[in-house]
Amino acid sequence: MAAPTAPRPGRYARAAHDTGFLLAQLPLAIAGFVLMVLVPSLGVPLLVLGIGVVVLGGLLTAVNGIGELTRDRLRAHGHRLEQGTRPPRPERRTVWRRSLARMRHGQSWMDVFRALLDFPLSITTFVVTVTWWVAGAAGLLYWFWGRFLPVDEDSRGLAWLLGLDGLVPEWLVQLAAGALLLLTAPWVVRALVMAHVGLERFALLASRPARLRARIDDLTASRAAVVDAESQALRRIERDLHDGPQQRLVRTTMDVQAALRRLDAGDPEAAREPLASALEQVQAGLGELRTMSRGIAPPVLADRGLAAAITSLAGQSPLRVQVEVRLPEDHRHGFQQQTAAYFVVSEALANAAKHSDATIVQVQVDETAAGTLRVRVTDDGRGGAHPAKGHGLAGLADRLGGVDGRLEVVSPEDGGTTVLATIPAP
Asked: Is the torsion defined by CA of 44, 50, 56, 57 positive or negative?
């Protein structure tokens, strides 16, 4: 059953939130403008001294902090904004090195320029917001406070300005103008807030190159890990084939040849023993090939899908396995993502059978509302598993990295093991 959605705030409730943001933004803009002025007037001249690096780094940190605070406030109001990048952390975290890292951080300098633009924008939005609400309320209440205004021959009101003097009473013109202002206020303050959203999105453009570089580094590392994992898998398969099925085929060939020689010699009873040995070798070789095939995507995955492949894995496990797969028919995950999920279940079941002394394993596969494939394998074993300890979990993390997935292992001592893999949609 889907969770009930929160009711949307009313038009004027949202306008009240927008008004609060616009009124509170002016003090932040003033503080940011003061810090922005101090950067060239105080921080830059002091660069000739050693303390100038620290002062300038501190000023840039404060300006960047005000920008991030403004963006966090906009996100809290429901506006979608990217996260700004942070300066890299130096290996030796001294104040001087952190200040140098801040000076090389493009987003900090972009926030200095943002503070210059935010100051006049915040003044404008503050004045328009206050004027719109106050003028609207004053127009609605003109019938009350208008009677206290001094009346003389030269006094002129809104009706005179609109050319309606003598045609429409002043109080009615004021009432209509006030109602119009209050009725349009929610859209006006929303447009003013969107002006701030546009400024913050412009300021975040400085973070995109750094974000792209970090993304490229992550992809390079994950692809290298996948290539290394596949190379190791191929070497393991080659070694297992040489040491297992290949040797058994050689032994089977020798047994069959021995049986043929005994048959040619007219002794069929003597041929029974080498034939039985050959049959035993063939059956053992089939078992080894079946075990090795678990490291290769099975045909059932391509033919019948992920749910059938996981059910087949559960049937091959010596443990009692409960499987729950809830995937929509139109899920967006391709064969690579499904293969990664399959290997997560395969490795987790193998570890539970070999290392955990578990009696029951629960396998849950579903897809979140955001389209993320989620695989959870939980056993009631003794725990203590960790990717750093091996058990194939480190290879799983590398394999998941190739499809931008993440692996999380929760395995306290004497507390069972939970392996959780999340794979985003391609």
From this structure: positive
What CATH number should be reported for the domain whose range is 298-423?
Answer: 3.30.565.10
Cα dihedral 300, 304, 306, 307, rounded to 10, equals -110
Q: What angle (nearest 5°) sits at the alpha carbon of residue 393, between those of residues 388 and 396?
A: 130
pTM: 0.55
Distance CA 29, CA 204 (A): 17
* Inter-CA distances, 280 with 63, 171, 284, Å: 77, 106, 6
What is the three-class DSSP state of 324? strand
Phi, psi angle pair for 260, to nearest 5°: -65, -40
Q: For residues 122-159, b (16+ Cβ closer than 10 Å) or e, as one string?
A: beebbeebeebbebbeebbebeeeeeeeeeeeeeebbb
> Exposed (0-12), middle (13-18) or buried (19+): which is 352, by Cβ within 10 Å?
buried
Q: How many residues does the chain have?
A: 426
Which amino acid is it at 327? L
CA dihedral 308, 311, 312, 316 (to 10 degrees): 180
Mind listing the pLDDT tens digit of every residue in the chain (426 residues)?
333 444 456 788 888 899 999 999 999 999 989 888 887 777 666 665 666 677 777 788 888 889 889 999 999 888 888 887 777 666 566 666 777 777 777 788 888 888 999 999 999 999 999 999 988 888 888 766 666 565 655 556 555 556 556 566 565 666 777 888 889 999 999 999 999 999 998 888 877 776 676 667 666 766 666 666 667 667 767 776 766 677 778 778 888 888 888 888 887 888 888 888 888 878 877 777 766 665 566 677 777 888 888 888 888 888 888 999 888 877 767 778 888 888 888 888 888 888 778 889 999 999 887 788 999 999 988 877 766 555 567 677 777 877 778 888 888 877 788 899 998 877
User: Is the alpha carbon torsion for 11, 12, 13, 16 positive or negative?
Assistant: positive
Amino acid at the residue 426: P
Note whether 214 and 83 are within 8 A (CB). no
183 to 27, 106, 140, 176, 258: CA distances (angstroms): 28, 43, 11, 10, 100
- Judging by beta carbons within 10 Å of its beta carbon (0-12, 13-18, 19+), is residue 75 exposed, middle or buried? middle
Three-state DSSP class for residue 314: helix
SS3 state of residue 385: coil
Residue 178, amino acid:
G
